[in-house]
Design brief:
about 170 residues; alpha/beta; three-stranded parallel sheet; single chain
Amino acid sequence: MDCGAGGRRPALALFFIHGYKAYGIDISDSQICRARKFATKHDIKLRISKADMRRIPFVDEAFGCVFSWNSSIHLTKEDTKTAICEMLRVLKAGGLLYVNFLWNSGVDMNLGEERGPGEFWKENNIVHSCFVEDETDRFFENYNVLYRQKRESTRKRKTSTQTVAYLDYIVKK
């Protein structure tokens, strides 16, 4: 299950190519459209539906793996907590959750106007939530954290360079 499964190069395709029965959700019609164009071009069957990761439309413990990469970063902190609870709800016992968060490492990430602690807003009402380390650890207090890494990524833009910091997790339910 991929939360935030749309886009020009959907990660869900990788799961499909390796033989998994893969499902995905995305809240954005345009991102779903991009993923479907990719799937058609590469003759891949993607099961993507329009849905919100804060209310995942699947039964409890439906999936052995839940994946959300660079998607929940566009939620407020409270909505991120809700989404993580939903991801864990649909994850089978013994299953793996792959997820990442923006990390407030002190790097100037130019994420917009801070309207709440660690919540930055840009034009078009796009939010980026940045967490300090222990905030995200609390999401997984009752689970087995197999992997946790702090990571910085530098991207070169046409007129600037941007460094973004992440906290990456692999959690076993």
